[in-house]
Design goal:
The structure holds 2 protein chains of 2 kinds. Chain A contains 8 helices and no strands. By secondary structure, chain A is mainly α. In chain B, β2 and β3 form a beta hairpin. The chains are: A mainly alpha, B mainly alpha. At the A-B interface, α3, α5, α6, α7 and α8 of A face α1, α3, α4, α5 and α33 of B.
Chain lengths: 189, 954
């Protein structure tokens, strides 16, 4: 499973047009993230809550050390990391909510410690569904949400990643707000 | 494309256009578009959602920053304890039921955790003090300290004795329908416990039923010394302020609201409220004369039945001595109450035994004297300011210079409140009115007895409504209240919301006191400061000029109010050159404040901070440094080293030092500021980010880009987390881009700088945009786009001239940039721009400043270009001299300048001198630090030297 920095850099570079590279890279990032998240919150009596920014940063360090990536590669890395983080966080919330309802049995080793402690008033499960639909309706806004919320990139960093202006990113964020709100209002199709 | 995608695509197009329209005209614009009703509704909703932070933003905040909620603690271990469930929440801490499961025994404790995210130094200090106090108190009826410490991730906790199924004393008495005598006996026990604490010099300050529990076995337990005070201990006023924010309005004594002296009599007041409640079933009401009103001991049928009595019998029992004891405990002036809990308990014991009591009803003469006691204006409103301010600063996120300055003014009011607390106590009637006002402010429309925490914004809105509805009969107080609310709103950056109360205060003051009155002038000054915050420079100037004229026409002379008006007018001058009139105003204001407000160091500070800024802008940097040193000396004398005022003074001092080119001095000042901040703040905040950024810029200017970038990145991480879209965040982003540029990564730096510039230009004129333009121009020049670079420097020059006048370092830097551009075009007229820059730097920066070095280099190269080789050599000699004497010497810069000098010497056919210069340059490169080797200077000097050696060989 372990891959060295060179291989990962290469995978990132190739993943643009190469399915095999993509198929190797995505699980690599997801599993690293998951391992780190579990490690961070292992039941050793030490409480430590990591935000996504810190977590994704740790994944970067773990996989790529101090290597500086070119922007297109960096964008791909953060896109994968954001997507992985999102499925990790939302899946986790779904599992928790399923557990609460006494739903389908969950294998013990699937149970992740809570990655982050979101605002209690946020319904992560519902939001997760809305974000799925948001990405389907407007993939560009979906990517923005993944980079900004789940990969923890600041707006200027998102702008660099996507190669657009900060103004565009901020306008897109406004649009994402509007779309998210309207999807929350309308019943799921 | 799915239906929703198609619908969204259409909506998005309209949303884009709508967001391009100015917000105030947007509704009108939407109404004018040919839209189907359904789409129009959707658009209106979309615009509203787009503009306001919503679920996505909360998700981002929670996820990106991480955070721990109460629920998250359940099941975790803290020290030797495992947390079971939440028992209660307070302002800054949560209390959990926890269990120790060590060595085969189980012990249940109440575990109090300081809430994360509220790691303010004050909260920590109070928490620490609670632990010390609990450790010192050992009494069977005080919940014992069991353990305390800090969790692995830094959250302080206290484990205390858990009162099994404890219930508040009032609920306990009612549930068992205890008769009066039993209630009084139990209350006497409470007095004895409190007296024990008081004998140990502890004032509880927050006595109320929920802190006085009765366990299942009937044992009394006193809890929560969270805001207790150690008598005689030197209490930091800020900490007391935090305590004030957390007091319980229904039980707190007037002096707690007014910021007055806290004594054992403070607890007596709370005990009086509790006694009243135990006897009658409700908390006392206070009459206009300040004491508990005669009707306050009202007996309800329900109360009688809960006391196994009849209404008539209860009324009889409550008359006479018992009534006197309650009234004495509740006296508004601490000196009229029982001195301490022991005295109260003793008198009640006498009541129970039918002996004569010590307390005597207040005489009619005494009441009359109190009733006519009046005070023209002032103190209690300052107390409100204190209270509102505390609320405001606790929530305030922004720390712009203006907000900070205004917060300083409001804090001054808070200091006033404490200082003048002695007077406040004499003013019982007013203090009571204020107390009632604040009480209502806190409890608002909430059900009686509910304790809840409102946001500062709610408090302010409610306060404003009350000021306008209930204080119409007290216009003077109303004016002051409105002014305070407006100032606090201004300090919170709620510019629009601040207008109404301040306008109303001005109108009322004019009507009540006349245009020329000092109090009207004060109201006008507050309104002018708002104009300043809003950027309405011209409006503010007109307003304050007229107000000062009216004051003078009415014969008003030097006074504190006049000084404040001058200070407000002087502050407006920072918007545009010339600065000299503003400087005059502030100097006058400062001198006048020293005479007419001798104790008000805060007012001096505000005036002097602005004075430093204006002097620096006007290029009088040495005077600015002198004023800033005065500020710093005063801060140290008043507060010592570890104080936020000392930090601010150091930050203020660093600016003019940097302007004069004394980068080492500026760095020392900021380094000290940062060290203090790291000591006094428990967690990174915007203040620290600001210092980190400033220090990073300075390191960068001192040619330590690596070190500078590291500091800026730390600053950016904090800013991005706490205030992602603020101007400070943009500035730091721009600074980081400049560092990229210094390392030669021009292609990366350009788009970043352009984005930052686009955002800075969208706002009001500011100095940061000029600096960004200069950085961008430098990058463009390096990329070979001379025309683009020149355009940016020209734009920067125009903006900086408008902002700073002719004689300012920034203007000099713009001229220098234009000279560089001309030089790149091989245009000999570059000498004109270079000389303009040198003339400005001559007067504004110190001799070894990098600015002067670069200006001499560019002028020297221009001279060489024009064939004036002698002059070129003189200039480059001077430049290398400056570079060699910089503090510290930046070897890569020295090497580059020496290489340029060698070039000029070669042109002058002096091969020997050129060889010596090249050797010196090589030596300098050899000494360059590892960090500097990534500089563009390093590569440039190295390449230049290689070329020179080749020419020498030829």
């Amino acid at each position: 499973m372990d891959a060295d920095v060179g291989e990962i850099t290469l995978l990132l570079r190739n993943s643009a047009g190469d399915d095999a590279a993509r198929q190797r890279l995505a699980p690599l990032i997801y599993d690293t993230l998951r391992r780190l998240a579990r490690g961070a919150l292992a039941g050793d009596g030490r409480e430590r809550t990591l935000g996504t920014t810190a977590l994704v940063h740790e994944v970067y360090l773990k996989l790529l050390g101090g290597a500086e990536l070119d922007w297109p590669d960096r964008r791909r890395f953060f896109a994968y990391a954001g997507r992985a983080m999102r499925s990790l966080a939302i899946d986790d919330a779904r599992r928790r909510s399923a557990l609460k309802r006494g739903g389908e049995g969950v294998r013990d080793d699937d149970a992740l410690p809570q990655l982050v402690a979101p605002d209690a008033s946020l319904d992560l499960v519902a939001l997760g569904q809305v974000l799925d639909r948001l990405g389907a309706v407007d993939p560009r806004l979906g990517e923005l949400v993944e980079l900004h919320v789940f990969a923890g990139l600041a707006f200027p960093e998102v702008a660099q990643c996507l190669g657009v202006s900060l103004r565009t990113v901020m306008r897109d964020w406004q649009k994402a707000r509007a779309l998210c709100a309207s999807l929350l209002e309308e019943p799921a199709a | 494309m799915s239906d929703s995608a198609a619908r969204w695509a259409e909506l998005e197009r309209w949303l884009d256009r709508a967001l391009d329209v100015e917000p105030e005209r947007r509704a009108e614009w939407i109404a004018a578009q040919p839209l189907a009703p359904q789409l129009r509704d959707a658009l209106i909703r979309a615009v509203a959602h787009a503009e306001a932070p919503g679920d996505l933003d909360r998700l981002q905040r929670e996820f990106a920053a991480g955070g721990t909620t109460d629920a998250d603690w359940i099941g975790r271990r803290v020290g030797a304890f495992r947390i079971e469930r939440l028992l209660g929440e307070g302002g800054s801490a949560s209390v959990y039921l926890a269990e120790r499961e060590q060595a085969g025994f189980r012990q249940r404790v109440a575990l109090k955790l300081l809430r994360q995210g509220l790691f303010r130094a004050d909260d920590r200090a109070l928490f620490e003090r609670e632990r010390r106090i609990l450790a010192a108190l050992e009494h069977p009826h005080i919940a014992r300290l069991i353990d305390g410490g800090v969790t692995d991730n830094g959250v302080p906790y206290i484990a205390m004795e858990y009162v099994d199924d404890g219930e508040p004393i009032t609920a306990y008495c009612d549930r068992l329908r205890l008769p009066l005598a039993r209630r009084i006996a139990l209350f006497v026990e409470v007095c004895e416990v409190v007296a024990y604490a008081q004998r140990n010099l502890v004032v509880h300050r927050d006595l109320k039923p929920s802190n006085i529990l009765v366990a299942r076995d009937g044992t009394l337990k006193l809890l929560d010394f969270g805001i207790a005070k150690l008598l005689g201990a030197d209490d930091d006023s800020a900490r007391t302020a935090t305590a004030m924010l957390r007091l319980t309005p229904g039980y707190a004594a007037p002096e707690q609201f007014a910021g007055g002296a806290i004594t054992t009599a403070t607890d007596v007041h709370a005990l009086g409220v509790l006694l009243h409640e135990l006897l009658t079933g409700e908390r006392p009401r206070f009459g206009a004369d300040g004491s508990a009103s005669p009707s306050s001991v009202r007996v309800l049928g329900a109360a009688a039945s809960a006391r196994a009595s009849t209404p008539a019998a209860l009324a009889r029992a409550l008359r006479g001595d018992l009534d006197t004891v309650v009234r004495t405990s509740l006296a508004p002036e601490p000196s009229r109450r029982y001195a301490d809990a022991a005295a109260l308990g003793a008198d009640l014991g006498r009541c129970l035994r039918g002996e004569p009591i010590a307390a005597r009803p207040a005489s009619a003469a005494y009441r009359a004297r109190k009733f006519v006691a009046r005070h023209p204006f002032g103190v209690p409103a300052a107390a409100i300011a204190a209270l509102l301010l505390i609320a405001a600063t606790a929530w305030s996120a922004h720390q712009t210079a203006l907000a900070r300055r205004e917060a300083g003014r409001a804090e001054r009011a808070a200091a006033d409140a404490t200082r003048q607390a002695a007077h406040a106590q004499a003013e019982s009637r007013r203090a009571l009115a204020i107390k009632q006002f604040l009480l209502d402010l806190f409890t608002g429309a909430a059900p009686a007895g509910a304790e809840h925490h409102e946001t500062a914004a709610d408090l302010l809105a409610y306060g404003e409504r009350r000021a306008n509805e209930d204080f119409t009969a007290y216009p003077e107080m109303r004016i002051e209240l409105l002014q305070t609310i407006g100032r606090v709103r201004n300090a919170r950056d709620e510019i629009e919301a601040a207008k109404a109360p301040l306008d109303a205060a001005v109108a009322l003051a004019r009507e009540r006191f006349g245009a020329g009155d000092a109090r009207t002038l004060a109201a006008e000054s507050a309104r002018t400061i708002l104009d300043d915050s809003a950027g309405a420079y011209a409006d503010g100037k007109r307003r304050i000029d007229a107000a000062i004229d009216a004051y003078a026409a009415a014969g008003g002379g030097d006074s504190a109010a006049f000084a404040q008006a001058l200070a407000a007018r002087g502050a407006l001058a920072h918007w545009a050159a010339p600065y000299d009139p503003g400087i005059d105003d502030l100097r006058r204001a400062f001198a006048m404040l020293q005479r007419f407000a001798p104790d008000d160091a805060r007012a001096w500070d505000s005036a002097q901070v602005v004075l430093v800024e204006l002097l620096s802008r006007a290029g009088h940097n040495e005077q600015a440094v002198a004023e800033a040193r005065g500020l710093l000396t005063r801060a140290r004398a008043l507060h010592g080293e570890d104080h936020v005022d000392t930090v601010h003074a150091l930050q203020v001092l660093a600016d003019p030092l940097r302007e004069t080119g004394d980068l080492a001095g500026a760095e020392a000042a900021l380094g000290e500021a940062l060290a203090i901040e790291r000591r006094i703040y428990a967690a990174p905040n915007l203040d620290i980010a600001q210092t980190l950024n400033d220090l990073g810029v300075l390191r960068g200017q001192r040619m330590d880009p690596e070190g500078g970038a590291a500091l800026m990145r730390e600053a950016y991480a904090i800013l991005h987390r706490l205030a992602p879209d603020s101007p400070a965040t943009l500035t730091t982003a721009g600074n980081l881009a400049s560092v990229e540029a210094r390392r030669g990564r021009y292609a990366q730096a350009e788009p970043l700088l352009r984005d930052v510039l686009a955002h800075q230009s969208a706002g009001p004129a500011n100095a940061a945009a000029g600096a960004t333009r200069r950085a961008l121009a430098g990058v463009l020049l390096r990329l070979g786009r001379i025309g683009d670079a020149e355009a940016q420097w020209r734009a920067a020059l125009a903006a900086d001239r408008a902002m700073f006048g002719e004689r300012h370092r920034a203007v000099g830097a713009d001229h220098l940039g234009l000279a560089r551009a001309s030089l790149a075009r091989k245009n000999t007229r570059c000498a004109v721009e270079a000389d303009a820059a040198r003339a400005i730097f001559d007067q504004t920066v110190i001799a070894v400043s990098p600015f002067r070095t670069e200006a001499d280099v560019v002028a020297g190269k221009c001279a060489q270009l024009a064939g004036r080789t002698r002059q070129a050599r003189t200039l480059l000699d001077a430049a290398s001299d400056r570079a060699a004497h910089a503090e510290p010497v930046v070897e890569t810069v020295l090497a580059r300048v020496l290489a340029d000098r060698a070039d000029a010497e070669l042109a002058d056919r002096d091969a020997a001198a050129a060889r010596a210069s090249i050797e010196a340059a090589d030596a300098a490169l050899g000494r360059a630090s590892a960090g500097n080797k990534s500089d563009v200077d390093y590569a440039e000097a190295r390449d230049h030297l290689a070329a020179l050696r080749a020419r020498l060989r030829d």
